[in-house]
Fold this sequence. Notes:
3-stranded antiparallel beta sheet
Amino acid sequence: MGEINSQSTISILMLKHLILKEIREIIMNVRSLFVMVICVILIPLGMYVSNKEYEQSMSAYKEAERMYEERSKDEKDLGLTAEGYIPPSPLSIFSSGLSDYLPNKINADSRGEWWAENEYGINNPIALLFGKIDFFFIVTIILSLLAFMFTFNSISGEKESGTLRLVAANPVPRWMIILAKIEGNYLVFLVTFIVGIITGLVLLTLTTSIPILTFTYLGPFLAILLISFLFLFILFNLGILLSIITGNSGASITASLLIWILIAILIPKISPMIAQVIYPIETEETINRQKSMKRIEIHEEFGNAGRDLMSVIMKENGMNAENFNMFTDWDIPAFKASRDDYDAKINDIKKKYDEKAREALEKIESNYRSKQETQENIAKNISRISPVSCYTYLINDITHTGLGELRNIKSNGNEFLHFAESEYYTPIRKNFKEYRIGGSISSGYFGDSRGLNIKIPVLQKYNYPTLSDTLFSNWIDLLLICFYALFFFTISVFQFIKYDVR
């Protein structure tokens, strides 16, 4: 037992010595200084600029909400379109994602429909044209490329210089040599990355009111960091693997650049195109036209049913709907009785057609969303060949700027529609009546809507999914990130064990 403990202690000391050797060599290399400068400058700068954009978006959100309440405060009409403004996500300072394209307003109307739109537009088209340098961009593009540049000659370069053969000639296990190289390179890179993050947090603390380090945002922030650490670990192991399987440093850097282009640019961008070819679907404009036509069709059916009902009721009261004159006969007792009878019976018919319209529109919407999800899943599954895609889906959903936010807007839209209907449109609708008599239509408010104690509907709270819900819905990407990290690490170790150091 003592001999085993002694061997374990010796192994640990050897590994520690090798790791320290790698760290000293890396620190002396100009590349480590370059990475430090990039991290310390770009990460805080990206956070600061993203924070300023968030503050601008928040200001636009508050102003739009104020103007809506101001112009609509005295409105008590079924024609009012309720507007619910979506606040920008504070976590968007780490990744803007789809922020410039996501809807920022939910509209609801008395027909029982809601739709989302982007009202503010694009504030900085040039930044959008060239891409924003936020935390997500720095990690996926700049640091991912630097990770390859950091490791491209970690094995092939030492083989060319002859130092690898000297190290391997010592009684040191091969696995220990490669483990020391992975850990040494990764630790130095990680320290510079963390220094950049800490600098950025200090800058944010001094320049913004977003409480990143509070309980509300600390969980998502730590999740972003841990996933970023894993992502960079994947790239480090992939870079070392390429350095092992290529013959020399020149071939290694060429292979590294090609692999980076493939996983960071080509696979993520080509996958949606392949999905569109494999599973083409209609455009959203086409679906909106179908819904509009169906809505008009069912409304016309309801109008005809209401006209027939009024005709029957008027006949029962000794009147002829075809010869009815609204201007001269409106106040006669027989028509007053007909109106009262009609008002008592039309609600059931209206509910029937409202339900029919809701089911028809939901069917069109559900079929389209199902096709959309199928196409989206095809694109996502193809793109997941690249760890960059998995990282992209995870980080942007955590910051509420990804594809998951589109589904979240739908959930909030349904809640806002229900709120607007129950708190605003239903009380007003009690005073609104429509009569179809023969070829004429009479509609309006029969009662004092102004006296109703109601307020215009506003989106009082926009609900974001919790961190646990987000991670659960993205479990495939989280699992793949962990798998890629373990896979490339294991392959690197096994490849180096049988590597010819001569």
